[in-house]
Amino acid sequence: MTSFRDARIAIIGLGGMGVRHVRASRQLGAQIVALCDTRGEALEAGLGEAPGAATYRSLSDFASAASRADLVSVVTNTSTRAKILMELLRAGARRVLTEKPFSTNLADAHAVTAAYEQAGAQLTVNTYRQFCDNHIRMRDLLRSGTLGQPRHIAIHSASTGLGNMGSVFFDLMNFYLDSRPVEVTGAIDRTGTPSVRGPQFRDPGGWAVVRYENGARGFLDSSEDTGVPYTLHLVTTYGRIVIDELFNHWKVSVRSEVDKARPLTYYPAPLADVSFELTHGYDPVQMTGVAMAAALNGLPDAANARQAVTVMEMIIAVHVSDAAGRVPVRLPLEGQHHALDIPFA
Ligand SMILES: NC(=O)c1ccc[n+]([C@@H]2O[C@H](COP(=O)([O-])OP(=O)(O)OC[C@H]3O[C@@H](n4cnc5c(N)ncnc54)[C@H](O)[C@@H]3O)[C@@H](O)[C@H]2O)c1
After folding, report:
1. Predicted structure pTM score
2. Could you tell me how far CA 309 lies from the centroid of its own chain?
């Protein structure tokens, strides 16, 4: 599908992010055919952005209408999504885009993923960066080997919750380090910062050290004692990438060809800037639109639920490691941890 003018999109969950899905659909030029929320005022907000869409307050009525759409977006709160995803599948939906974090426990993430695979239905989790041109070209640059190999990534994300922004950053770690995470050691922050989405949600921050199959290391710090925009710092054999995504500052630098031949112990080798043009700014509506387009086009990478399960493993592993005294935990997690449920928003 190259033009989305004939694409029909249905959306359930019309809080702040659901409205972004409505706007992203409109930016693609698609038709929004069905909207659902349990709250009347949220439904009104959605309808204000998509006049003419059919509106629903109940999941069963929405599911049968949504199953005839080309894409269904699930943008309700995390604990509700597994049930909704299963109901949509039963009703016959074939392409679904769901929000992150994927689920509140691993059992749901595995069950939903297996059900979609068995039915041959496409499930996309909206960690949209992998579909965005800037990140794809940056990974292409890494894969070209000009900077050597990616060995270290450190991500700082202030006070945002391991489910909320941790799900984005573990996913980006896996994307850039291009390897399988095999072990997580972590700690949960006990500050108790309230969720901005309501007291029924609890999603502590914390820190994690991730060891990868290829020997690379990932570090995430989302502790609840800082309040600055997130940054990603990636170090390769000879180079460095610093991404301040919210403010569109991306900087790449590398040793000269002469210095690449010198030993790695020669750390004072100056790094020269590598030109890297951004083709788009940070815009969650536009970036969600890119994920929607990938899902509508049925791109191979759009079926990313397995990767999202791995990300859930990493988040839950931080909780498991913390409870066991901050010890290293092997991935994939054993079945006994699949029921551990964290009330992410
Ligand atoms: N990918 C991203 O960048 C990104 C950004 C923001 C939020 N999110 C995720 O999107 C989800 C929604 O975030 P939000 O900020 O819109 O939350 P929100 O709490 O503002 O909105 C959620 C909406 O879902 C509705 N809802 C809940 N259960 C429902 C059900 N069973 N049936 C129908 N409607 C239901 C609620 O009434 C509410 O209107 C969260 O899980 C959040 O983590 C992702």
Report:
1. 0.97
2. 11
